[in-house]
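Service request form, structural biology core

Requester: graduate student, group of Dr. S.
Request type: structure prediction, single chain
Budget code: on file
Notes: please return the result as structure tokens.

Sequence provided:
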Amino acid sequence: MASSAASSVRPPRPKKEPQALIIPKNAAEEQKLKLERLMKNPDKAVPIPEKMSEWAPRPPPEFVRDVMGSSAGAGSGEFHVYRHLRRREYQRQDYMDAMAEKQKLEAEFQKRLERNKIAAEEQTAKRRKKRQKLKEKKLLAKKMKLEQKKQSEASSETQEQPSSGSEEASGTEDEEEDAPSFITGR
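Core staff response, request fulfilled:
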């Protein structure tokens, strides 16, 4: 039994160092303190609250049994019941109007977004077409330059080959020019 008593006794926990009480003076200091507390133990899971659902009024009752107004003849407590029903109905109508307005604004936003997207696509297509045109123009200019270079090389080759033979031919032409043109025997 002594062994069970010894095993049930836990070792004493180490004493935590006392922390100074810091009172935040503004929202930034409060946020800083919260972050410091979270970062002391990064392994601990952080509770992230869910997004609160939007408030919606209760649906109207299926059947209203006691239809009454604020007219004379109603009991002293009936006016308060009527007032609460009226307030609830006005809240429901305001909610429906707000939701309709929100849906209308969302639809307008989506239309505007679609128009902007189409305009951006058109502008991009226009610029793409312009870039392609410039690219083709540069490619065509490059081809023309290569063709001119080939033609100039070919013409220089043709000029070099006949130029050696042209000197001999030019000598014979000079002789022909010296001879009278009326002789046709050659």
